[in-house]
Amino acid sequence: MKKRAFWQDTLPLIGIAVLLSACASGTKVTRVQDVPDKADAPYKKILIVSLFSSFDARNYIEKELIKQLADLGTDAVGSLSMMDSRTKATRQTYIDMVDLVGADAVVVIQLESLETDAKLVDANPQATYNVWPTYYYNVWSVQLTEYVEPPGVMFDNKIVMATQVYSVSLREPVWGIESQFRIVQDIDSAWDYGVFIEQAKVIAGKLRSDGLIAR
Length: 215
What we know:
Elements: E1 23-24, E2 28-33, E3 45-51, H1 55-71, E4 75-78, H2 91-101, E5 105-121, E6 126-133, E7 140-147, E8 152-167, E9 172-186, H3 194-209
């Protein structure tokens, strides 16, 4: 039975429920599909499709991967640059994008798994002292005020992200990796954009070293 390319079926929109912030560990990459002999790589025009429920996460990773590929001499276009809030993420939408930009390959990035552990952490109390003398020798009045915040929540996120390359001419996947990394964050942390830069560098580097784009 012939394999169906991703644009021949409705693309599943896999959700990403993690805020990419605070401190991220190094990325471990596992190749899950080698490039077959029949692959028509290296590719010169790539459409990047990210499938996360968070629009911001999709936008950030697509933009950073475009930058990384441009630095390596490969032209890439993000799917979000051709979408707005009314555009439906359907099979036909991505078929039209491939035809519009003349892509010879499509890179699809999506969340494969997410494990999150959460725990309460005690806040560090702060105190102020006011000291003043009294009428008595060597006797002082001391006023102590303590400020204690409620306990915070710390998340330990273990994330596996899947990246695949589809050949437009072969109409099937020709390469795939899993990127495993860990992010520790507290609930009030702002997003750390560096996570997207790091993951884009990892993907672009592997595309180049495995011959999917020109070296």
